[in-house]
Amino acid sequence: MSKHILFMLNPWFEKNNQGPFYCPDCGIVEGFFAYSPEVRKQIEIIWLDYEKPRHKVIECLGAENQGCPVLVLDDNSNAPFGVKKSLLTGKAFIDDPKMICDYLGQVFKVVRPHP
């Protein structure tokens, strides 16, 4: 069985040694994992550098969908309302951090964001 794939950004430094910085949206998903660490083991997490192009995301979803975090649903998943689909590959994905947390909470029957 395939797994969901979650693309997340590594913390980074910018020119002139500014930083380190982190992605606030990735931080929301990290917060979810703090409450439900068992989910980490059940999905594939791929850490990427901040700079674009982000080739691994492009291969999976196309150049127009390089934002992070992004959860690519496994091919056997029932896609919930609001899920997007890559025009290039046909893969279903979620690119909103609260929706990612809510989806993972539902699928793995763990904590979910309060509506």
Description:
The chain has one domain (5-108): Glutaredoxin, CATH 3.40.30.10. The protein is 27% helix and 22% strand. It has 3 helices and 7 strands, in the order E-E-E-H-E-H-E-E-E-H. It has a 5-stranded mixed sheet with strand order 4-1-5-7-6. A two-stranded antiparallel ribbon has the order 2-3.
Strand order of the largest sheet: 4-1-5-7-6
Topology pattern, helix = H, strand = E: EEEHEHEEEH
Which structural category do the helix and sheet elements fall into? Answer: alpha+beta
Q: Work out the helix count.
A: 3
Predict the CATH topology. Answer: Glutaredoxin
The percent of residues in helical segments reads 25-40%
* Uncertain regions spanning at least 5 consecutive residues: none
SSE layout and pairings?
Blueprint: E1 5-9, E2 12-14, E3 18-21, H1 24-35, E4 44-48, H2 55-61, E5 70-72, E6 84-85, E7 92-94, H3 97-108
Helix pairs in contact: 1-3
Give me some keywords for this one:
single chain, 115 residues, alpha+beta, Glutaredoxin, two-stranded antiparallel ribbon, 3 helices, 27% helix, 22% strand
